[in-house]
């Protein structure tokens, strides 16, 4: 199956700092999704990307669809305590029958 | 509008038993996908259904089966439960194609003793 590698695996940051994480794939994808998951709950969609080079924002979150179509990036500006959670990327290609998920980035925000 | 709903929230079973998990998609969505998420890992794809037909299957044994009903709700069945089946089972709905944006339900936490 497809391998999606997320980095970093975990982050410990001070409140107010900016955060950057990325996701790389062994294959070319046509859609990238970013989710946030709190413990014991389902993933919540943050941002969806459909076009290479696309840059999309959702409040303090900004995600980009890499121009190689094998990677995507998520940035969080001015982090706050409620940003704590695990962030997953997911990707697929048009002829695919599933989304492939990354290994997750665990974010801890220290007040 | 209600989001994706799943039932039950939690379930405890013993090895060898059978379990049925249920999912109702977002109103207007016709596609349902099932995922298994083991603690510390990302969701792993199990099945995808669209218009009551199986459109995709992940690398899971035949003990796992699913179906979709005319109202687009879905059931996931797991037979002969193993300890390793303990996980959070997630249902995701999308409008039509499997590659349309997926929205997840809260999940069902299955514990096999």
Strand content of chain A: over 45%
Class by alpha and beta content of chain B: mainly beta
* Strands of chain B, total number: 11
User: Greatest contact pair?
Assistant: A-B, 27 and 26 residues
Low-confidence sequence ranges of chain B = none
Q: How many individual β-strands of chain A?
A: 11
* Structure class of chain A: mainly beta
Low-confidence stretches of chain A: none
Principal-axis shape of chain A: globular
C-alpha Rg of chain A (nearest Å): 13 Å
Structural notes for this entry:
The complex is a heterodimer of chains A (111) and B (113). Chain A has 111 residues and is mostly beta strands. Chain A has no helices and 11 strands. Chain B is an all-beta fold and 113 residues long. Helices cover 0% and strands 50% of the residues of chain B. Chain B has no helices and 11 strands. The model of chain B has no long low-confidence stretch (mean pLDDT 94). Classes of the chains: A mainly beta (111), B mainly beta (113). Chains A and B meet through strand 4, strand 5, strand 9 and strand 10 of A and strand 5 and strand 10 of B.
State the main characteristics.
heterodimer, A: 111 residues, mainly beta, six-stranded mixed beta sheet, five-stranded antiparallel beta sheet, 54% strand, B: 113 residues, seven-stranded mixed beta sheet
List the topology elements.
The complex is a heterodimer of chains A (111) and B (113).
Chain A: E1 4-7, E2 10-14, E3 19-25, E4 31-37, E5 44-49, E6 55-58, E7 61-65, E8 71-76, E9 85-92, E10 100-101, E11 105-110
Parallel strand pairs in A: 2-11
Antiparallel strand pairs in A: 1-3, 3-8, 4-5, 4-9, 6-7, 7-8, 9-10, 9-11
Chain B: E1 5-7, E2 10-13, E3 19-24, E4 31-37, E5 44-50, E6 53-57, E7 64-68, E8 74-78, E9 87-94, E10 103-104, E11 108-112
Parallel strand pairs in B: 2-11
Antiparallel strand pairs in B: 1-3, 3-8, 4-5, 4-9, 5-6, 7-8, 9-10, 9-11
């Amino acid at each position: 199956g497809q391998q999606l590698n997320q980095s970093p695996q975990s982050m410990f940051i001070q409140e107010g700092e900016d955060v950057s994480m990325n996701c790389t794939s062994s294959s070319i994808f046509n859609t990238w999704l970013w989710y946030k998951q709190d413990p014991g709950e389902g993933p919540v969609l943050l941002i969806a990307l459909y076009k290479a080079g696309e840059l999309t924002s959702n409040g303090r979150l900004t995600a980009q669809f890499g121009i190689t179509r094998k990677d995507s990036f998520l940035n969080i500006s001015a982090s706050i305590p409620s940003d704590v959670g695990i962030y997953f990327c997911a990707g697929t290609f048009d002829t695919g029958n599933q989304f492939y998920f990354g290994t997750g980035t665990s974010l801890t925000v220290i007040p | 509008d209600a989001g994706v709903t799943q039932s039950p929230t939690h379930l405890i079973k013993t090895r060898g038993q059978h379990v049925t998990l249920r999912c109702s998609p977002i109103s207007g969505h016709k596609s349902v996908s099932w995922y298994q998420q083991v603690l510390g890992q990302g969701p792993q794809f199990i099945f995808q259904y669209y218009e009551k037909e199986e459109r995709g299957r992940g690398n899971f044994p035949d003990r796992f089966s699913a179906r979709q009903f005319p109202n687009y709700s879905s059931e996931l069945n797991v037979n002969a439960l193993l300890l390793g089946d303990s996980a959070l089972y997630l249902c995701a709905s999308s409008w039509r194609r499997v590659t349309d944006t997926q929205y997840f339900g809260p999940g069902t936490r299955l514990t096999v003793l």
